[in-house]
Amino acid sequence: MARATLISDPTGAAASALTLEALRDVPPRSHRELTRIALIGNPNSGKSSLFNQLTGLNQKVGNFPGVTVDRKTGISQLTAQHRAEIIDLPGTYSLYPKSLDEKVITDLLYDQASDQYPDFVVVTVDASNLRRNLLLFTQLADLGLPAVLALNMMDVAEQHGVQIDIMALQQELGVPIIPMNARKGVGIAALKIVMSRQLGAPTKSFYEPGEDLLPMIRQIRYYFNLHNDYLALHYAHQFRQISFLTADDKTYIAELVEKYDFQPTPRQAQETIDRYARVNDILLNTVTVVRTEKNEPYSNKLDKVLTHKVWGYLIFFGILFLMFQAVFAWASYPMELIDEGVTWINQLVQTNFDGPLVSLLTEGVLAGLGGVLIFIPQIALLFAFIAVLEETGYMARVTFMMDRIMRKFGLNGKSIVPLISGVACAVPAIMSARTIENWKDRIITIFVTPLMSCSARIPVYTVLIALVVPPTKVLGIFNLQGIALMGLYLLGFFAAIFSAWVLKLILRTQNKSYFIMEFPVYRWPRWKNVGLTIVEKVKTFVFQAGKVIVAISVILWVLASYGPGNALEQAETRARTTAAQQQLSAEETDIRIASEKLENSYAGLFGRTLEPAIRPLGFDWKIGIALITSFAAREVFVGTISTIYSVGQDADMRTVQQKLAAEKDENGQPFFTPARAFSLLVFYVFAMQCMSTLAVVYRETKGWKWPLMQLFYMTGLAYVSSLIVYQLFK
Amino acid sequence: MSIRPAQAQPHAPRSVKDLRLGESGTICCLQDPEMALKLLEMGCIPGTEVRLNSRAPLGCPITLVVGNEDYTLSLRVSEAATILLKD
InterPro entries per the record (chain B) (predicted)? Predict the structure, then answer.
């Protein structure tokens, strides 16, 4: 099971230690309900690997009650009869939250009355870095939470020559310890056995708050009916941030804190120092480091290149470029397959059935669904790239290299993660800004992240670029379309950076920004983790965004198929009369009727109302309709124009691109000139057209001020830029 | 153990910021009480040895190896300046 050296205890003191054998006598948990187990540990301690090993594909992502941070839960089959719900908590170094991300943990663990309160916790600990990892464990143990210690990364510890006397450590810590290697699945079976048992509270405590604090602590403890002193102490430290306390509760604690002159900062510092001293003592008796001569770690050697002045940045931009090429070039093959598949089904339905419902199904539902499904390859590829960069530890290097530069623009090295993730989707990206401790840095990051071109813009970019940029090869390898795509991404990026700089000048704050973070060693990505991330993101997209897109497609179909009063009948009659006068063929007549009907439908009405405002940008009422629907979500654009232009067009006009290329202006020239296409592209780069993003910014900033400012700023920027582009190039 | 520097230093104390690449020093105290909370949690306890491991291409941030374990911390130069070293 474990490759660590297990030293037997010569004194026989291990008899009282918690061993796996001893645990066999502990009765299994009652099966009345699902056991709730929280997974907690330092960042980079292999927590997500363990979560994935325990739950596999049985995961779901929801929100913590009341907050928007992702709450990942999964069901694990511990034994044949016993299933447990596993809650994956964000990584943290201590129970004193330094960022919003970590606050989720204290909100969960402080509220014993909550129905979300875990039955016990599994603490993951990096065996190669026990000292710092055990700090969090000792705090959890002092909260009195039943716990199991998953001593992870035993293989790494062994490579470093760290030998751990597990029996002795188990006795010192007072909880069962399972040595494991979660990446390889070693130790999972043993952990599951322990997890299926009824665990008692830890038998050891590691820190005494100090006699002088007891009067205050006891008052808090009895007032809130808490089960131990240490929890009461945490209330005194953090009452302002605890979300479930009422205003009265907070006032009560505030008065006590004042009365006893409680100084949180020095107390917390002293607690950390005391705990480290205690952990040092424990490690002295239980851990020996055998091999002291150290080769230069391979991570350091890699860093010499990957964070080099020149190579570092070149490699980073190379990776970004590869990412865009992948999304544009590699994804196009599966995308074509999906496109053709949907078209094929559509034609199958159209040729075999008839009636108004069929038209709703093909032009409404299927057209919308196609617009959702076609995204999957690109989203999967983007998230695969981001997951690999995170998994390997490379993202931390990017943060490290970019901090100095980002700071000039009012951002933070850590802003790079939301900005790069923003290329996939602004919603998770904005939530990932929670790791930024500084309020101003975080607000600026949140504000500018939606300017990064997200994957929802890809279809718009793809369709329009393919329309006006030839797929010529440049320098033999680069595709001109790929370069145009990268140009749009860069445009968004520079807009984000520039906006950040402006905000930096406007916003005032007292808070200091800091950048103290662990620099993880390079690791091979765990493909299972990458795979599960992709599945999770694609699922979220298809079910969350998909619902909106299909719904809007259906609404659009209705709006495009019906008009006020008998406007449509009149339009048809008019079209027939003109067609007869001009002696058009039957086919041309049909097209004339369809376009005349669309113009007079509800959708046409909306578009026409908007047309005067967008005509200077080169847009007509049809694009106007697409813009309106895009305000729900950008990805609707392609679906919308596909619906609008498919109403009454030939069946052989299969793809959206062909439909757009066939569109003619009043003079019979192709409507989508480069000036129009680029104006539209620039509009989509800048405009805030995503309800989900606005909703998440509202929740993350706790108010409408920032989302509304974003909406007006970005849309204004889009309008002005589009205007300039169209007027310059037309 | 105080997390504030001793009063009336005869000469300006050295801080982690003054370390040369590869040089080690022992932490004496942490100057900024707020930042100290985070640094302490990350293992920068007074008495711990730290080694300047690398600098970012633009000179800031830097990375430190904390303690005798292979654990690397990255922080800005301004933050490193708050970690004073023993003589």
Answer: Fe-transptr_FeoA-like, FeoA, FeoA_core_dom, Transcriptional_repressor_C
Hey, what domains does chain B have and what are their CATH numbers? 16-85 (2.30.30.90)
Cα–Cα distances in Å, from A66 out to A36, A62, A319, A426? 19, 11, 37, 20
The parent domain of residue A595 ranges over: 545-729
Same domain, A183 and A245: no
For CA atoms B44, B48, B51, B52, the dihedral sign is positive
What average pLDDT does the structure give for chain A? 82
Instruction: Please tell me which residue of chain B has the smallest CA distance to A313.
Output: B57
ipTM of the complex: 0.87
Quick: pLDDT tens for A534-573: 888 788 777 766 776 677 778 877 887 888 878 888 888 8
| Mutate which: A92, A133, A276, A438, vs B, most B CBs within 10 A | A276
Helix, strand, coil % in chain A, rounded to nearest 5: 65, 10, 30
Residues A49 and A189 in one domain: yes
Give the count of domains, chain A: 4
Q: Chain A contacts of B58, Cβ < 8 Å?
A: 401, 404-405
- Is A8 within the bounds of a domain? no
Same domain (yes/no): A154, A242: no
CB contact under 8 A, B76 and A514: yes
- Does residue A425 register a pLDDT over 90? no
Q: Which residues lie across from A150 on neighbouring strands? A: A124, A178
Polymer length of chain A: 730
Residues B75/A516, Cβ–Cβ less than 8 Å: yes
- Which of A96-100, A119-123, A142-146, A361-365 is the least confident region? A361-365
Distance from CA of A14 to the nearest CA of B (A): 28
Least Cα distance to A271 among A228, A209, A214, A215 occurs for: A209
pTM of the full structure: 0.78
Residue A150 included in any domain: yes
Residue ranges in A203-263 assigned as alpha helix (H): 214-224, 229-238, 247-259
- Residue-level pLDDT at A199: 82
A221, A341: one domain: no
What is residue A11's predicted lDDT score, i.e. its pLDDT?
40
Q: How near does any CA of chain A get to the CA of B63, in Å?
A: 8
Do both A654 and A714 map to the same domain?
yes
Q: Express each pLDDT in A56-104 by its tens digit.
A: 776 665 544 444 456 688 888 888 888 899 998 888 899 998 877 788 8
Q: How open is the CA angle A340-A345-A348, to the nearest 5 degrees?
A: 125
Residue A25 CB-density burial (10 A; 0-12 exposed, 13-18 middle, 19+ buried): exposed
Cβ contact A656:A638 at 8 Å: yes
The residues, ordered by sequence, that sit 6+ positions from A630 with a Cβ below 8 Å of its Cβ are A636, A637, A640, A684, A687, A689
Residue ending a domain, among A289, A319, A334, is: A289
**Residue B43: closest CA among chain A residues belongs to which residue?**
A132
The reply to whether residue A519 touches residue B79, judged by beta carbons under 8 angstroms, is: no
| CB atoms B72 and A521 under 8 Å | yes
Q: What is the pLDDT of residue A295?
A: 56
Q: Could you tell me if A704 lies within 8 Å of chain B, comparing CB atoms? A: no
